[in-house]
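hey
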């Protein structure tokens, strides 16, 4: 396997340095995901841009995390499962929602469960969702805009999940308490 560099603001390509400095200010450290992505300024910029756009949707933090975590789990991204668990804890997402997302079990809140189910359908079916998938989301109280916002969240997580798979990004100490793997989850 290729050995990818975890860049710092000193080693990163010039076009990535400012973005890593922004990460340092936002998190208090440069997440290893950003350090790996810095190899490609285009990738790091795309990831940060899509993350920012996803944050501008009408979805709540909890709803955005439902979409992100569903994709993280389906894509088997250990790094993002741990990182987003930490993010959800900081954002005060209800613990039962976090547990459901980590364990692939239904969320008790019916509306959030409909969102989780739709996000899963988008990922698993590669966007070829059925009318029944869309209708179930709409019946739960979401809108046609939400259908497309789920695609934004799916694209956002594709960038990070695939980067972590290829770069074999090591988990940051800040996320270590929330380590996750498919093998340790209930069947």
């Amino acid at each position: 396997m290729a050995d990818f560099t975890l860049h710092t603001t000193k080693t990163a390509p010039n076009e990535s340095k400012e973005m890593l400095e922004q990460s340092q200010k936002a998190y208090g450290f440069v997440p290893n995901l950003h350090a790996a992505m810095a190899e490609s300024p285009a990738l790091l910029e795309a990831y940060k841009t899509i993350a920012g756009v996803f944050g501008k949707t009408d979805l709540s933090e909890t709803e955005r995390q439902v979409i992100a975590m569903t994709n993280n789990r389906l894509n088997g991204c250990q790094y993002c499962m741990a990182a987003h668990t930490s993010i959800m804890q900081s954002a005060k997402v209800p613990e039962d929602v976090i547990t459901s997302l980590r364990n692939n079990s239904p969320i008790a809140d019916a509306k959030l469960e409909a969102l989780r189910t739709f996000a899963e359908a988008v990922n698993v079916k590669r966007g070829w969702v059925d009318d029944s998938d869309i209708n179930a989301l709409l019946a739960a109280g979401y809108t046609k805009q939400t259908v497309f916002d789920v695609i934004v969240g799916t694209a956002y997580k594709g960038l990070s999940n695939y980067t972590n798979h290829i770069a074999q990004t090591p988990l940051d100490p800040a996320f270590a308490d929330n380590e996750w793997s498919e093998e340790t989850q209930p069947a």
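The chain has a mean pLDDT of 96. Residues 103 and 185 are 6 Å apart (CA to CA).
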